[in-house]
């Protein structure tokens, strides 16, 4: 049995190691050092292109739980990260050079993995012929030729080249004495949650947006702003009233507390059927994360907002997973070709590695004629994978967060919710792991 994996990033290396540990032969194709994406610079594998942080290690956070689950499933990335960790408070951060060197050493020392340094430009590349499965793990900056070929295979409209992500707010943290439910021009309770602003508040908000610190786009990202995903602050820069006539327009809305139309309205759209999370409509932004929290908490109704995800805009190649992938991450249009990592629509280092690990485990089972069901959606990995099957109108990548998990039963105090999500996730994951994984990296049982 031989599997070909395109891209030796976080997902590709994780997937390769999961397969190799279960005695599956792997050819791992990596285009570096012949060709580098605009963000990659090192010859080593699993390069961290920006921050050196794997985010929170708090076992009460979704990403902390995901890391625990990965470690228990034999994650190469988590193990290498622990070996090369540097002090970072409650976060797991690594020395990026040591981390990539460690992964490269482990991959090249694994006898079942053959590293082939070349660019794969097409799904029909002769190097991929005759393999039992092909995994595309070419990441958010997959090479142009490969991305174009993938677009041909799945349909141009199903492959995206950038993220314009608006923040997501935990529904339990909204002040419902201020925000009100209504859809434009509709009587009674509507689908949207509306945060009303008076004129002074609006003008202060626009001034705050303009003054806030922003992340500077990299050279290759500058063209994004011309592609129709204007950041909210760039729109505000066009004139003080631009937002009030654009995404913050109040037409068709009456504040039930005043009986009048507000001067401006920030609309929040439910992110899931259980309405546990709300998306801030039109708020894609390049504000830094701390500035987003500061400025957006000045919005009436959001003073104590907990952000499940913050906004961003960046170059990102990803497929419309719910329409193009099967639950086992196989391309519906090309059976035998699987996707892993950020290109599936998960977001972030940890999530991409987790996705690669899951695909590796699931392919091992498949190659042995068995089916590995995904972990339950209450677990962190299960919640992340369930995002790829959401029925959203506008599918957008997501990092792991409790908003992706099924709602907690009953009404719970805000202070206890994280602990409840976390203990439920640990229970669900442990039951799944005990049933399906025998020892880290080798599976399935039976
Ligand atoms: P990658 O890690 O990008 O790996 C893909 C690999 O495939 C690369 O080695 C590439 O050279 C190779 N490849 C591409 N095309 C081909 C081809 N045709 N043939 C052969 N090889 C190919 N996430 C965070 O958590 N924190 C951050 O701070 C952060 N900052 C980011 C900044 C930028 C500019 C970008 C673009 C992304 C950032 N991300 C960040 C997201 C992060 O890059 C991804 O989550 C993660 O690296 C994705 O892992 P991956 O394995 O899917 O892809």
Automatic annotation (TrEMBL):
It comes from the Bacteria. Residues 3-370 form the MnmG N-terminal domain. It holds the Pfam family GIDA. Signal peptide: none annotated. One of its GO terms (cellular component) is cytosol. One of its GO terms (molecular function) is tRNA (uracil(54)-C5)-methyltransferase activity, 5,10-methylenetetrahydrofolate-dependent. It is found in: Cytoplasm. Its cofactor is FAD. It catalyses: uridine(54) in tRNA + (6R)-5,10-methylene-5,6,7,8-tetrahydrofolate + NADPH + H(+) = 5-methyluridine(54) in tRNA + (6S)-5,6,7,8-tetrahydrofolate + NADP(+); uridine(54) in tRNA + (6R)-5,10-methylene-5,6,7,8-tetrahydrofolate + NADH + H(+) = 5-methyluridine(54) in tRNA + (6S)-5,6,7,8-tetrahydrofolate + NAD(+). FAD binds at residues 7-12. Its main location: cytoplasm. SUPFAM superfamilies: FAD/NAD(P)-binding domain. One of its GO terms (biological process) is tRNA wobble uridine modification. Catalyzes the folate-dependent formation of 5-methyl-uridine at position 54 (M-5-U54) in all tRNAs. Belongs to the MnmG family. TrmFO subfamily. This is Methylenetetrahydrofolate--tRNA-(uracil-5-)-methyltransferase TrmFO. It comes from Desulfolutivibrio sulfodismutans.
């Amino acid at each position: 049995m031989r599997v070909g994996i395109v891209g030796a990033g976080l997902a590709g290396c994780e997937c390769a190691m999961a397969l190799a540990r279960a005695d599956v032969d792997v050819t791992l194709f990596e285009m570096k050092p012949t060709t580098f994406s605009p963000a990659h610079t090192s010859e080593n594998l699993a390069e961290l292109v920006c921050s050196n942080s794997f985010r929170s290690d708090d076992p009460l956070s979704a990403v902390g739980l995901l890391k625990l689950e990965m470690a228990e499933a034999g994650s190469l990335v988590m193990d290498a990260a622990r070996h090369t960790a540097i002090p970072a408070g409650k976060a797991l951060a690594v020395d990026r050079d040591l981390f990539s060197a460690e992964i490269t050493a482990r991959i090249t020392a694994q006898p079942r993995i053959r590293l082939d340094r070349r660019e794969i430009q097409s799904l029909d590349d002769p190097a991929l012929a005759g393999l039992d499965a092909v995994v595309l793990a070419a990441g958010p900056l997959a090479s142009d030729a490969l991305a174009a070929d993938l677009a041909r295979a799945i349909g141009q409209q199903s492959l995206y080249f950038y993220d314009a992500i608006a923040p997501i707010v935990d529904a339990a943290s909204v002040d419902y004495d201020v925000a009100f439910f209504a859809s434009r021009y509709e009587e009674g309770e509507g689908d949207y949650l509306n945060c009303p602003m008076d004129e002074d508040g609006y003008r202060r908000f626009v001034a705050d947006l303009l003054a806030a610190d922003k992340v500077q786009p990299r050279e290759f990202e500058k063209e994004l702003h011309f592609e129709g995903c204007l950041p909210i602050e760039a729109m505000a820069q066009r004139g003080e009233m631009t937002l009030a006539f654009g995404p913050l327009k109040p037409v068709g809305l009456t504040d039930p507390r005043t009986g009048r139309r507000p001067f401006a309205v920030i609309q929040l759209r439910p992110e899931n059927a259980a309405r546990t999370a709300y998306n801030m409509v039109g708020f894609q932004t390049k504000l830094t994360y701390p500035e987003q929290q500061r400025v957006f908490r000045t919005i009436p109704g959001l003073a104590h907002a907990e952000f499940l995800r913050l906004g961003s805009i960046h170059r990102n190649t990803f497929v419309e997973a719910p329409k193009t992938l099967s639950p086992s991450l196989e391309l519906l249009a090309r059976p035998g070709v699987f996707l892993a990592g950020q290109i599936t629509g998960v977001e972030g280092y940890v999530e991409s590695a987790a996705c690669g690990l899951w695909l590796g485990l699931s392919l091992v089972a498949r190659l042995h004629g068995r089916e590995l069901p995904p972990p339950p959606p209450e677990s962190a990995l299960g919640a992340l994978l369930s995002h790829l099957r959401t029925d959203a109108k506008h599918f957008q990548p997501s990092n792991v967060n409790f908003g992706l998990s099924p709602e907690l039963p009953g009404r719970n105090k805000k202070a206890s919710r994280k602990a409840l999500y976390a203990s439920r996730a640990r229970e669900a994951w442990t039951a799944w792991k005990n049933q399906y994984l025998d020892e880290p990296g080798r599976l399935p049982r039976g």
